[in-house]
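To: structure subgroup
Subject: Chain for Friday's discussion

All,

I'm putting the inputs and outputs inline so they're searchable in the archive.
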Amino acid sequence: MVKERARILVVGGGYVGMYTALRLQRKLKGELKRDEAEITIVTPDPYMTYQPFLPEAAAGAISPRHVVVPLRRVLDQCRVIIGEATSIDHQKRTATVSTLATKEEGTGGLLLTYDELVLAPGSVSRTLPIPGLADHGIGFKTVEEAIGLRNHVIEQMDIASSTRDPAIRDAALTFLFVGGGFAGVEALGELEDMARYAARYYHNIKPEDMKWILVEASGRILPEVGEEMGRYTVTELRRRNIDVRLETRLESCADRVAVLSDGARFRTRTVVWTAGVKPHPILAATDLPRNERGRLKCTPQLTIEGATHAWAAGDAAAVPDVTAEEPGRECAPNAQHAVRQAGVLGDNIVHALRGEPLQTYTHKYVGSVASLGFHKGVAHVYGRKLKGYPAWFMHRAYHLSRVPTFNRKARVLAEWTLSGLFKREIVSLGSLEHPRAEFELAAGGKPSQDPPVNPKGSS
């Protein structure tokens, strides 16, 4: 039993944040009812995004609402604050949080006090100072970006279909993806598959008219699935007339002209940036120790080194891999570890509150699966290598098993079943990005280029 009222603050509502809070909510059910414990989650979005399904959401195989989990519904015993932590003073046990309300009020932010801190803000896209990237690049880390990219691809096909200018047509039908990791390869594979299907509904666009280019700075793609499966993926993509360029970098995309390190230059209206991530900026605004890569130094029990009552896991944490043969190796920052770490982290907080011994996080990496489009995939799991339909089926089965809540699993499974019976939807809803544009024009004003009224919930 918890002896004193415990105030637990969870920063981040992603994999680690949601699963940790869910575990605490279950383990501390009695204490929460007796008001002996309080769990607060600070997150910029009111939902958790299941990122492995973003490529399928972009391709229209899954509704965007079914790849997100509403936090207030799942964490009904917790206090959910929609905002961003801007600074944390762990020595004083305080966190400053910026919300929409505090911005309108003009205050310095909401000051929260806590007894136990869980830092799980995840990561953000790692960009480089490439000319034109900030103006023309598109990310692929959120559900908004996934749906925005889907709309964008279809809109480019509309532009190419209606223009008489061959230069505009070529630029519209040229799609450049930078980064050969899971996000880049899966997004490219799914969207190319969708666009090839959509081309049958355009009288003057054929699949071979489109140019799909994947640029990777290293000499291989999908390193998680092994060298052999990585080579197979390159072969499979090239068989689909996708231009895969290894050991190549994007040097500029200014004025919608992509310039590559191998000397290639071409006009394009689509540059998708998936070249890695970096720790969330909030980590630098704390007084907690970090390693040379900016991640929090953690113990195998998921506590933060040199700090009491502070915990971390996931992308933000450098957690020692106790199963590794070589010393000093850390757990990979991926969903496979994050979900399992969250369970141990939640249990350990309860153990600490009750004065019990802590568990050590241990998990041997079992492998990876990746989708390359409908009925296409690669997998390297438990030493077995799969490709094509079996790998694609394993990809779906594995990730369906990991989707939180039975309700979400049932919805995704129902959509997959229906997609096998009906044709794909190829409608672009680009107007969602500027929902007031038509009304402003009707009212005599000039359509604004402001961000959408509700950018996090319009899809």
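Points worth raising on Friday:
Residues 25 and 77 are 7 Å apart (CA to CA).
The radius of gyration is 23 Å.

D.
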